[in-house]
């Protein structure tokens, strides 16, 4: 078995998460978390598309993942702008979005499309990390802290926090320590397991009455 | 993997694992602490609410007893005294007996009204508006002042315990009006409107300076405000010397 095949675990997890999101859609259809249903399916199809490009056409698929990275971060920013209530947080989301667009367009213009845009990813990851902390701050200072494990948004923020907490050191260290193949893939798959594991727990545990907006 | 790669893998893996573990532990601890604090606060608030309910009920009962005592003395007592005087003058003057009989009849009626009023089962079944109406009628009957009440036909039900507290707040305001304000007029306005209960009470008494309320005199006022806070109602007491006092209350049901 080739090590690359381990990456299909990620695709499988995405599929499971997307299916569970569809099954439990009724529970969160009235909150802005409903966009995650479309987002998870989008992720899954991008992953399939990437695999098809890489294995069937045997060309590099980094441009697809670059595009996916940019759209997914923009999606996260948009979602946080809908759930964060404080004005200062909303303004932070706007500033982060603008900064992120700067970084990503610099990468788009000055970096080859045949490689992965690490700076875009790291910038987006740092901003999302801060936004998850804002969200936790908001949860901690409300009565919702009592029922937090039934809130889908809590699980989404936890998933994003843990995933990007791991991604940031992984990709920054990647520049300095030359690791390839198996170890990189192992860590990435592990982080994806945490990410989609949190999503899956969230979809299963969430209760309708706590997801209103 | 060669040895060097294993090493670098272990370094990165342990750094990331450490970061994640730390985050999870921190998050868990933070949420748990906050949760416990909130639960404790809720329990305290609940027991405070219960205590306050009991205290309010006792105060209402005490007030009722005081009112009964006044009514017996000022109203029925006076009538019976009148009847006694009439009968004393009746010797050799039979027409006065008729008058005495009417007086005694009136006092019997008053007595019946009073007994109906203070019957606990009748009291607990009253709606807020009915209870306020009784208060207003009592003021008029005893000629303390000229009171009137106006209310909307539409209404919604409010938790009985909260109703008791709202009633007590108004009763306290009325007591202040009767005791201190030297008012001759009291107007009460109750409106149930779109999940919000508005009550407005106004007298035309001497009023006071809201800025300069002495702590002793202000006990009634602070009571009203702290009770409003307890049930989450908005209450405002406005007054100026010589211009009467006004209480406006807004209570929104969930």
Mean pLDDT of chain A: 88
Q: In total, how many domains does the architecture of chain B comprise?
A: 2
- CA-CA gap between termini of chain B: 64 Å
Written as H for each helix and E for each strand, in order along the chain, the element string of chain B is HHHHEHEEHEE
What is the count of distinct domains of chain A?
A: 1
Quick one: how many beta strands of chain A? 0
Query: What is the tally of helical segments of chain A?
Result: 8
Order of helices and strands of chain A: HHHHHHHH
Strand content of chain B: 5-15%
Helix content of chain B: 55-70%
Beta-strand fraction estimate of chain A: under 5%
Category by helix and strand content of chain A: mainly alpha
Which spans of chain A have pLDDT < 50 for at least 5 consecutive residues? none
Extended strand count of chain B: 5
Strand count, sense and barrel status of the largest sheet of chain A are: none
Number of distinct helices of chain B: 6
How is this structure best described in words?
The complex is a heterodimer of chains A (213) and B (254). Chain A is mostly helical. Chain A has 8 helices and no strands. Chain A has one domain (3-210). With 254 residues, chain B is α+β, with helices and mostly antiparallel strands. Chain A binds chain B through residues 136, 139-140, 143, 145-146, 148, 158, 161-162, 165-166, 169-170, 173, 177-183, 186-187, 191, 194, and chain B through 1, 5-6, 8-9, 11-13, 15-16, 19-20, 23-24, 27, 30-31, 34-35, 38-39.
